[in-house]
Amino acid sequence: MARLKESNTQTTTETTTNDVVFDMEVHAAKAPIACLILGHGAGAGKEHEFMQDMANELVAKGISTVLFNFPYMQTIKSTGKRRPPDKADKLMSHFAAVIESCSKDNKALHNLPVFIGGKSMGGRMATMVYEGISNVKGAIALGYPFHPPGKPEKTRTEHLLTAAKPLLIIQGERDTFGNKNEIESGQENYALSSAIECVFLEDGDHSFKPRKASGKTQQEHIVKAAELTAAFINRNLSS
After folding, report:
1. At 45, is the secondary structure helix, strand, or coil?
2. pLDDT averaged over the chain?
3. What is the pTM of this model?
4. Is the N or C terminus of the chain more exposed, i.e. has fewer CB atoms within 10 Å?
5. How many domains is the chain partitioned into structurally?
6. What distance in Å separates the CA atoms of residue 34 and residue 144, rounded to the nearest whole number?
7. For the domain that residue 160 is a member of, what is the CATH number?
8. pLDDT tens digits for 110-150?
9. What SS3 class is residue 29?
10. pLDDT tens, residue by residue, 9-43
11. Residue 144 is part of which domain span?
């Protein structure tokens, strides 16, 4: 089932032959240079304002953007009952299936260079699958969850130490999942691969929201993040 909204955003729900259900939105740029597939964070799906604002900013910069819901979020939508995210292997498997579907089955995205990414958990999943998929040129993490809040010793960086494909991490300076001081500490578990670029947004939290005293706004940071993402994609189109 598919419908075309006035916003030119196409929402498609379909079941494949192996019973994978997709809940996706394609935000199509007029003259796209690339496709970016974004996964959502743990607590909110593709409909969240952050995801929608980011998609709109990226489309304005010539990046056709796909938003999708992981299976557990599809269940939350259909039942109205909260539940925790699926295990990482299921999330990764679904992300890979979305990439394959977008690359092969969607005419609007056919033959476009593919990049993947996401917010928080979605970004982490992107970093865990992007090197194993040959047509994915790079990844973007919007607020990478380097560790659970209040547990800096439990880092999630092992695979980032040896990454070979280009990866852009855009992080709020005071993100409780990994702040600027921690990431730039020089500690062994933050010795990120040279393929990774990490950029910080002034006074931003995990959703890039700064405090009023900073003189910045969350919307300014979202615009900046989209600019950084578009520039990263342009730099890596030929890789």
Report:
1. coil
2. 90
3. 0.91
4. N
5. 1
6. 22
7. 3.40.50.1820
8. 789 999 999 999 999 999 999 999 999 999 999 999 999 99
9. coil
10. 555 555 453 678 899 999 999 999 999 999 999 99
11. 2-235
